[in-house]
Fold:
Amino acid sequence: MAARPGATTSTTWEGASCDAAPSPFRNPAAGLARRGVHHHRADRLAVRLAGRLRRVAHRFLRAVLARPVPRLALAAGPRPPLDRRWRRHGIGPLRAGPGRPRRLRPAGHPPAGVRCRPLGRSRRRAPQRPAGRRTAMTDRSSVILGAYGRDLLHERTMQPVLVIGPTGSGKTTTTVHPPLLAAWDESVVVWDFKGSVTEDTSRARTRFGDVIVLDLARRGGSRYNPLMAVRPEPYLVPDCQHAARVLTEGEQEGHWRNAAFSYLTGVFVFLLTAAADPEKSLAGARRHILLGDDGLKCMLAEGIHPTAQRAAQELWDKSLALAEERGTGEGEGKGRPGGGSTPPDKSLHYRKSVYVTASVLLAEFEDSVLEAQTAVSDFSIADLVAGERPVTLYIVARPLDARRLRRVFKLILTQMVDFLTIDRDCADDGRARRWRLLVVLDEFLQFHLREAAEWIKYAREYGIRLLLLAQSLWEVEDEYGRGLTANCRLVVFRPNSSDEAERISRMVGEAIEEVPTRSTSKGLLDLFPTVSRGVRVDRRPVLPMHEALEMGGDDLIVFGYGKPIRATRLHPYADPHWRPLYGRAAAAWIPNPDANRWFGAAGPVAEGRVPMVPDTPAAPRRPKPPKVWT
Structure:
């Protein structure tokens, strides 16, 4: 029946409605209905088929438009893989509520509602939360690697951490200050390169235990004598050799270095077992070496330790043998009877060369301030792990003092790590270990520590955790190789060069994308086209080099937990929860009298039986054979 003029016709077909919103797909049924044409059964089937095709097309279009752009994210879904990494490695964030911070779930349970930030470029960025929500007041014995949204990334294992970032990137305030202020409640050794860490965090460390500030270039602070760390027999000689080896490292390999090493070992043994208490120090060793042959003759006297006697006798014999070997050359012709000169004393010249080489290694102790700061020890290495309370030791070295006293600082750090990796249960003085130790080395490349690559491998087994900071990843690998970076958790801040950015891009890895493809070919007489569909696999870097160079100053990447984690740095200075903790400690360390284990040990020189400077020369045990002139 035809429609009345001016009336609205609404004919509903199966799968299509003429009153519906306009569709991008053609609907032949709508045209037929508007014209009011009566159609037969074939037309009805055609309209029904068109409706079904329209619904399928709409579903496909909605699926294509709703499909996200393919990208590699660190996690997907409501429970990201980072939760599993927290469960496996013991990493768990804290969330601070209003008022006093509270502890959330244990480390074994992942926090609810935490979403991972994609590592690649994202269309939408999460809104910035106030910095005051990021706290960790109750999460201790961990190292904080950065902020992750409103939470903090805590690393509770003993795995060493290497932090790479240029100057001013915030690696100290992000990874050093938070553990010292709140997160680590056990013993700490901090290499303070500029003195700022001591000023900022020492007051907070008094809440956990005692604080020791070791400043060898300033009077009035705590003191430390490296020779007092030497253990008594049967470890006297090995520990003296350990100190001599560290002092001679860095010198050119050769005969003079080996001779100085042997003589220094004998001098250390002689001073600890025979000299008076004021001479049992590295400054006293330098004074003894500068005595020349007089000091050598004291070591050859009766009642001296056999190791010291052998070192002195070896030097004496080598000098005589060298004089005999070279006495048949030009010097012999000058020393013949009737000649115009006497033969030079080549043995004395050889011994003086050894004295000079050994004294140069201790030239820093000409400084009276350094001599006073290393005369006695106010603490022992065992106090760090076996004391009644945890101990925080700040080794302060300003840039000028760090270069000048590099050998001394290197000896102190090497003694602390090496002597604490002897026994897992006891310290070097026999006391049971009670605390773990965190060793923080800022700008550690300036020490040229060959042992650092070895410490990484076994220090964690003895309760020692290393936190190393450097400015360039290439410099670390040039000095220690890739073995050090492969065994550390790596935290990388914004790179400062294109080579560094390219290296970071390769470390992040590549993303594999599956892109659907469609191709259409014309069929016979263009009536039946052929459509083929497939999937193309593309590879692209997750973090291209140009994006690595464009990283913001607050961005950092954490490696070592499977997929990399993109986090942000902390700003403790601007955080109201952290700001009240800053300040310098007022209480001073009470000296430990047991730290000077070698004071009071009687010896021939201390008792006056052997003078420090003999009046008569001591005869060599191997007299020089007389020459036969022809």
In short: The longest strand covers residues 510-521. Residues 1-39, 69-139, 328-343, 613-630 have pLDDT under 50 and may be disordered. Residues 12-66 form one domain.
